[in-house]
Each structure stands twice: as C-alpha cells, then as structure tokens.
Give the backbone structure.
Amino acid sequence: MPGKNRVHTAEFKLLAVRRMVAGCNVKALAEELGVRRQLLYKWKAAFEAGGPDNLLRKRRGRRPKGAEPPPGQPASEVAQLRARVAELERLAGRQAMELDFFAEALRVVGAPSPRNERPGATASTPSSGRGRARKAD
C-alpha cells in the first residue's frame, strides 16, 4: 500500500473508528482510506481503551503523554502499582471464569433427571434396602 509510513491525524483516525463502530465494512473502509485493516482495528482498540485522546500517534523513544508519575511519587512505585493492578485484573478474570463454570455445573447437577420430571415418580436409582424392617422367618 502506498504511504506505508504516513502519519494520520487523530481526527482522521477518529472518523475511521466512528465509521467502524457504525457498522461500515472494515475491508472496504481500509481500501477507501488506503490503510491496512489491522491498523483500523488498532485504532479502534486504542479508542476503546482511552477515548479520542488515545488516538494520537505514539512516537518511538519518547514517553507517552500522561505516563509520567504524579508529582511526589517515584516511577518505581508507579510501576509496582501498575503490576499489582494487572495481577488483580488477571485474578478477577480467573474468578469470573470459575464462577461461570460452577454456575453451569450447578445448573446441570440441579436439573432433574428425565425420570424424575413427574411429581411422585420413582427414584432414578434403586433403593439399597437399608432402613427397612426385615421379615422374620
């Protein structure tokens, strides 16, 4: 594609993302704008992650705007906090998957077997005979 290293404005990217969200065919949009489909998806992900301000081009070798630690907080502490947030997000995701698994298992286990659908139907397994009085010979 021509213009391999073109710089696109945030407005250009925002218009492209809005057309994607509106349901425009991504392949046709990419051809029309002269960009790769993967680039459109990157722009969309950046927009969803941080809004229109996140569509600004990030230059290599420079710290992105807003990445500086707040005044009075060392950079190492910020990095530790980000790592902790990532760890907690992974844990929350794992717990959500486990909850979904157990909810489905409970639904399956709690469902009546086909033989027990009628009230008063016989049990699905035969009785072991325990607890009944034995006949005297």
In short: Residues 54 and 66 are 10 Å apart (CA to CA). Residues 1-60 form a domain with the Arc Repressor Mutant, subunit A fold (CATH 1.10.10). The helical segments are 10-21, 26-33, 37-50, 75-110.
